[in-house]
Amino acid sequence: MTAVDLALEYGYCDKTIRKWLKREDTPHYKSRSKQPRKLDPYKEYIMNRMAEGVFNCEILIREIKKQGYTGGKTILKDFVAPFRKQFKVVAVRRFETKPGEQMQADWGYLGKFLLDGRLRKVYIFVIVIGYSRFLVAHCTNSMDLESLLLSHQHCFAMAGGVTKQIVYDNMKTVTIGRDTEHKPIWQTRFMDFASYYGFKPVAHTPYKPRSKGKVERAVDYIKENFCPGRHFSDLADLNQQLQHWLDTVANVRIHGTTASLILESKAEQAVKGNWSYIEFLNRLLEEEVVVRRKRSLVTRTRLAKVPATKTLASFDFDAQPSIDKRLIEELSTLSFLDRADNILLLGPPGVGKTHLAAALALRSLEEGYTAYFITLSKLMNTLQDAEANNKLEKRIRTYLKPKVLVIDEVGYLPLNRSMANLLFQLISRRYEHGSIILTSNKSYGDWGDFLGDSVLAAAILDRLLHHSITINIKGESYRLRDRTKAGVSQVPPTKEV
Ligand code: ADP
Ligand code: MG
Fold first, then answer.
1. Which residue from 117, 354, 365, 451 has the highest number of Cβ atoms inside 10 Å of its Cβ?
2. Which of 254, 367, 381 is CA-nearest to residue 304?
3. How far is CA 143 from CA 81, 108, 152, 273, 300, in A?
4. Smallest CA separation from ligand 1 atom 26, residue
5. Closest CA to ligand 1's atom 21
6. C-alpha 353 – ligand 1 centre gap (Å)
């Protein structure tokens, strides 16, 4: 019998069989070193302490020694180490609060700012709602009692209410010290205020690090993320900008801990739905990706100045039979972007040119491309301003960056020579570089007129049309459709393009 035969018969690897065959003695299990037993009687106690969040071996050993433990610290450490990770989540969760239960409040120092022409210190009063991590804040020039009460009122208004308790990290502003039993002595006016609003102030107990910290982290977060690069005319302006930032940025982010609530709810669904582990992970990631994408899409759409409601889904193709629906569908795959093709939407007012241009820009944003939407008159204004300030090159470059540049309403306003020149510069620099989606009520034959120069018009059209798709929309204005049906208004005569 060969080693391979034996391996097959006994289900071991043939290498193992050969190793055994070489040996003189019979293989046997080594007796394992004895498990430390000294710790055993204390294990249950230690487990309970870990569940309460105590992993510090110095503390634990002191406690079990009092109970009679005679062993060393190494055995204890080896026992505690694997649990550290496992229990940590549970230990932290103890301090999570129920909805409506608790807010945490504190002052922070925001820094020195130029307000009303003077450099002034700014303090920030921050409240974090324990359950949701919702953040409200109010800035002042002082931390006196007056400012404290005022800031509370502002924050309550922003939060839309108050919780049963408010925990104060920093005692000095709300208490006047501690009595002989170390209980806080509250300021009388502050207590009146609290009872008026119906909350119970709670003094943060020092040396319980886990019961505080939400506010401190919030102050740091605001300092690092709100302040840089901002200017404020006065305190009211600062507070207004702060409120806007809280509404649009800070309170929109998924807080790490809130994310863990999503995790918990997904985990519950997973158990109920009998999901596999991979499926669970997948769905969790999907959630994260969807949230992130949505958030970034909203922001990017806003920055791109694209009217967000003008989507392809909301475009009624039946109302505009002159539009080849399949062509628009083909364009919505965005393959034109790779070729830097231009799209020219031509037609009389109200037929959906702007709508389609915006819809294609939105599709591009959805797919992660950059876009920018601007009317020709606005574009002309900014380019002229830039030219006057010697910043033309920089300005033009910002319009070269986006993958899609929508130039809306070309032809409504006649351009003078210098404007036509600026337009030529922009279009020739984007030529074969990035797509332009352009809407116009003018047929190509009329471009010489509105540009005031037929040679320049020809040069612009030459570059625009070289790689391009022209969509001629005929038909009646969508704006006037219902009114016409109702017999209220006449459709204005439309010009063929
Ligand atoms: P244009 O740019 O051609 O002057 P717009 O795209 O601004 O016209 O359209 C005018 C209004 O009518 C917009 O509010 C647009 O959303 C709407 N609209 C136009 N055509 C359609 C359509 N086929 N389906 C849905 N809404 C349309
Ligand atoms: Mg339009």
1. 451
2. 367
3. 45, 9, 12, 53, 38
4. 315
5. 352
6. 7
Compute, in angstroms, the gap from residue 480 CA to the centroid of ligand 2.
Answer: 14
What is the bridge-based pairing of β-strands 102-115 and 165-168? parallel
Interval between CA 180 and ligand 2 midpoint (Å): 76
Give the type of residue at 80. V
| Any atom of ligand 1 within 6 Å of the Cβ of 479 | yes
Please state the length of the chain: 497
Q: Is 316 in the pocket of ligand 1 (CB under 6 A)?
A: yes
